[in-house]
Amino acid sequence: MEDFYTIQGEGFHTGKAAYFLRIGGCDVGCYWCDVKESWNPKLHPLTETDEIVNRVLGNPAATVVVTGGEPLMYQLDYLCDRLKKHGLQVHLETSGSHPFSGSFDWICLSPKRKSPPKNEVFSKANELKIIVFDDTDFAWAEENALLVNPDCYLCLQPEWSRMETVLPDIIDYVLKNPRWHISLQAHKFMHIP
Q1: CATH code assigned at 62
Q2: What confidence tier does 35 reach under pLDDT thresholds 50, 70, 90?
Q3: 3: which strand partners?
Q4: In the chain, how many domains are there?
Q5: Contact 155, 128 (CB under 8 A)
Q6: How far is residue 81 from each of residues 46, 51, 55, 65, 85, measured CA to CA in Å?
Q7: Angle at Cα 65 formed by Cα 61 and Cα 70, nearest 5°?
Q8: Which residues span the domain enclosing 89?
Q9: What is the enclosing helix (H) or strand (E) of 50?
Q10: CB contact at 8 A, 43 and 25
Q11: At residue 82, does pLDDT exceed 90?
C-alpha cells in the first residue's frame, strides 16, 4: 500500500528510526482502525518485492517494520529473506489472524477479538500490544497475556479517538499491574506518519 521512512511511534521500539512497509489488505476490519484505506487489497496494485527492497536500501534505515492492513495475509518468506540479506532488522506488526510466514527479529502481536490470533503466533510474539477502547479490553489483555511467553513485553495502548477517556483507566491498571506498560501513539503527537 505504502512505504516510508519515519520514527516508530508505538510499543517497545518507540522513538527508533524505521522504514515502514504497509501491506494492503485486511480482513479483520476493526471499526476503530486508523488505516481503513488499507483494507481493500484491490486498491493497492502489487509491487515487485525486489523493487520494495531497493526503496528500503535507498534510506539509512537499519530496521524495517512490516505492517498493514494484515501482513500475514501474504507469504512473507521471500521479503524477509531479501531484507535480512542486507543486514536489516525486520519487525512485524500483526493481529496474528493468519498462518505465520517470514523470519523476524521482533514480532508485535496486537490481537483482535473479531479475528483472534492463530495459536502458533502467541509463542513467537516478543511484544503483546492490546488496544484499549473500553474497560472490557483489560480482560481481553489478560486472556492473551496467558498465551504468550513469560518474557513477552506487554503493553496497553489507548485507542486514539478515546485516549482522553481511557488513558486514566490504563494508568490505574498499569499501576496495579506493573508487568504491563503503556504505549502511546507518539508519532501522532509528533505529526509524522
Answers
A1: 3.20.20.70
A2: confident
A3: 21
A4: 1
A5: yes
A6: 19, 14, 16, 14, 6
A7: 155
A8: 2-190
A9: helix 49-57
A10: no
A11: yes
Helical (H) or strand (E) element with 81: helix 77-85
Residue where the block lists cell 523470519: 103
Quote the pLDDT of residue 28: 85
Query: Nearest CA to 16 among 76, 85, 89?
Result: 89
Taking the alpha carbons at both ends of the chain, their separation in whole angstroms is 14
Section 133-148 average pLDDT: 97
In the structure, what pLDDT confidence band is assigned to residue 75 with cuts at 50, 70 and 90?
A: very high
Beta bridge partners of 86: none
Q: pLDDT-based confidence at 170, cuts 50/70/90? A: very high
Q: What pLDDT, in 10s, does the model give residues 42-61?
A: 888 889 999 999 999 999 99
CB 30, CB 114: distance < 8 Å: yes
Are 70 and 25 within 8 A, CB to CB?
yes
Residue type, 169: D
Residue 69, preceding bond cis, omega within 30 degrees?
yes
